[in-house]
Amino acid sequence: MKQNVAPKYGQGLTPRQFVEGMTRNQQAFETWYEKFTWEDESDHEYFESLNHRDDLRVLILAADWCGDVVRNVPVVFRILETAGIKTEVLILEEHPEVMDDYLTMGGRAVPIVIFADSGGYVLGHWGPRPEHVQSLMNAFKRENPDREAADYESKITEVRKAMGQAYGEGTESHAVIVKELRALISGF
Questions:
Q1: Would the CA dihedral through 94, 86, 27, 46 be positive or negative?
Q2: Closest CA to 115 of 63, 171, 62, 55
Q3: Would you tell me the crossing angle of helices 152-167 and 131-143 to the nearest 10 degrees?
Q4: What is the pTM of this model?
Q5: Residue burial 52-84, b: 16+ Cβ < 10 Å; e: rest
Q6: Is-contact 62 14, C-beta < 8 A?
Q7: Cα angle vertex 151, ends 147, 155, to 5°?
Q8: pLDDT at residue 2, as a whole number
Q9: What is the torsional sign of CA 162, 24, 77, 111?
Q10: Lowest CB count within 10 Å: 31, 33, 94, 170, which one?
Q11: How many CB atoms lie within 10 A of CB 132?
Q12: DSSP letter string over 19-61?
């Protein structure tokens, strides 16, 4: 049976409330939001075409201290605004039971974008990062399972640097997120 998140409907923040309530990284978040543009007009048209769908809801697990939230959620907000999909943000620390249903390789990583129908049945999810960035962390965790190893911290610092490079200096990852969300939603 698919998970049902309907009990969480109405417990989250609107995207605007989330941004206004940020105590960390608000300016960087808003900068990424403002930098978003549609690189492919067919993607823009696709997401605009979803405005007639009143059967979709989105819950986003997030935290303002997380760099991936700051980079990725502004793009997700823009996409969902264009699609007209009702969206709520659940703060990770306030909803650990939901987070624990969406662990990434056994760990808590945000953002997680949960797509559900109006009855709360989960259709799919995305996150915490674009696949080409996440694959670097997946490989790291497979190769370095012992968090207590003497060289773990230096190695994770290196993989985080590589992930930053994979995101790119500018908005390169925005189009990737658009394509990944379009592929996911197209399956609903």
A1: positive
A2: 55
A3: 170
A4: 0.95
A5: eeeebbbbbbbbbebebbbbbbbbbbbbbebbb
A6: no
A7: 85
A8: 62
A9: positive
A10: 170
A11: 13
A12: HHT-SSSHHHHHHHHHH---S-HHHHHHHHHGGG--SEEEEEE
* pLDDT, averaged in runs of 10, over the chain (188 residues): 88 98 97 97 98 94 97 98 98 96 93 97 97 96 94 96 94 96 96
Q: What share of the chain is helix, strand, coil (3-state, %, to 5)?
A: 55, 15, 30
> What is the bridge-based pairing of β-strands 86-91 and 112-117?
unpaired
Q: Express each pLDDT in 15-29 by its tens digit.
A: 999 999 999 999 999
Convert 147-170 to b/e letters by CB count within 10 Å (16 or more is b).
eeeeeeeeeeeebeeebeebbeee
- Which token pair is 125? 């999810």
Q: Which residue has the tokens 């999810």?
A: 125
Length of the chain: 188
Q: What letter represents residue 49's amino acid? A: S
Residues 14 and 86: their CA atoms lie apart, in Å, by 9
Retrieve residue 82's tokens. 């264009």
Question: How many other C-beta atoms lie within 10 A of the C-beta of residue 88?
Answer: 20
